[in-house]
Amino acid sequence: MVLAYTGHPRALAGNPESERDSEHVAKDIRFTFQPIDSPAALESGWRELEARSGRSFFLSWAWIGTWLATLPAEFRPFVISAREGGRVAGLAVAIANTVRQRLRTKVPGLHLNSTGDPRWDCIAIEHNGFLCDAREEGIILDGFFDWFARETADMADELRLPGVTLPLDTEMLYRRGFLHSTNTQPGFAVNLDFVAKDGDIGAVLSGNARQQLRRTERDYERQGEIEISAARDAGEALGYFRALKSLHVASWERRGRRHSFSEPYFQMFHEHLIAREFAKGAVQLLRVRAGGRDLGYLYNFRKHGRVSAYQSGFDDADRKRRPGVLSHSLAIGWNAKNGERVYDFLAGENQMKSTFATDRYVLTWQVIRRPLLKYRLESLARHVVQRVFG
User: Fold this and answer.
1) In the 8-state DSSP scheme, what is residue 235?
2) N or C end of the chain: which has fewer CB within 10 A?
């Protein structure tokens, strides 16, 4: 399947640096859609584009390659290539899957770098989209929507893009007749340039937050020396990850809430990721102790100076204590001392993230549907229910 598309430079708006380089931005994008018979055959091309333009760990081969290697055989992944002439401008993986959410119509869909099945999407991709140059992302997405509208009618009625960073042009979507819904979540990050070279994070905190952090440090210092250490090899990293799981599961079960390890695929995927990528520096496992007792473990990803704080486990049985605050504060300082540039808390809001963050952004979970009558009626019914029952 091939679709020619001449885009407009929406991605450049308001970005002077990009506007100066606009002559290098693609203007004519064509899309191809092919089954991935061998991930190994895709790897070299993916890594080549990643080296030129990769920004998100979740679009790196570390993540995508592990995902393709661990997906069950029931899924048939396709690679979507966005090309300008002979140049590959963007790459993404899509899976066609029919899903049915609670109280909704069963819909054949196309899922970007995901499956549409929560058993396998439990790994929760973020900073999703096309692997491409940031200046071309808007153009590629616009062309991709045209391609979806014209070329996939016999395959999918909806397109799902989970955890994408670039805001979509909703006016354009409605103008083309799509039905569209969006769920947004805030993201929080710390610019490590504001952290002192010795790892002191005081400059990113308010006066009150500094006092509270110091109070937390004194609390744990009574227990003994506070220390942070990083796993030194893949074997130790896997040990840290399993210890993290124990603390994480215990914490969430105490609160009667579903935890991240509820689906078996979550642990399987990440153990493969750690085993494959730790030696390449893509994965970071940290342990925080006080007086030789484990307080917390952090599982982070590394890409181009950006550390993504993906998962954690804390000894938080005593609700008066704050092991998470202490662990993340030490991890922020540790990464700053080691030359990283950003500590990204990823999506989801809580008081700790707001306290530490110097920057905020928004991630969106997008659903785009063809304007078929059954979906229009479903949308109308859902709107009526929301109006009546709030």
Assistant:
1) H
2) C
Co-location of 86 and 214 in the same domain: no
d(CA 68, CA 203) in angstroms, rounded, equals 42
What DSSP line would sit under 254-289, residue for residue?
HTT---GGGSHHHHHHHHHHHHHHGGGT-EEEEEEE
Total domains in the chain come to 2
pLDDT tens track for 71-113:
999 999 999 999 998 899 999 999 999 987 655 678 899 999 9
* Helix (H), strand (E) at residue 34: strand 28-35
User: Residue 323 falls within a domain, yes or no?
Assistant: yes
Residues 380, 330 share a domain: no
Cα–Cα distance for residue pair 104/379, rounded to 1 Å: 9
- Maximum average pLDDT range among 7-11, 168-172, 196-200, 219-223: 219-223
Angle between helices 234-254 and 264-277 (to 10 degrees): 150
End-to-end CA distance of the chain: 44
Residue 131, in any domain of the structure: yes
- CA atoms 353, 355, 358, 359: torsion sign: positive
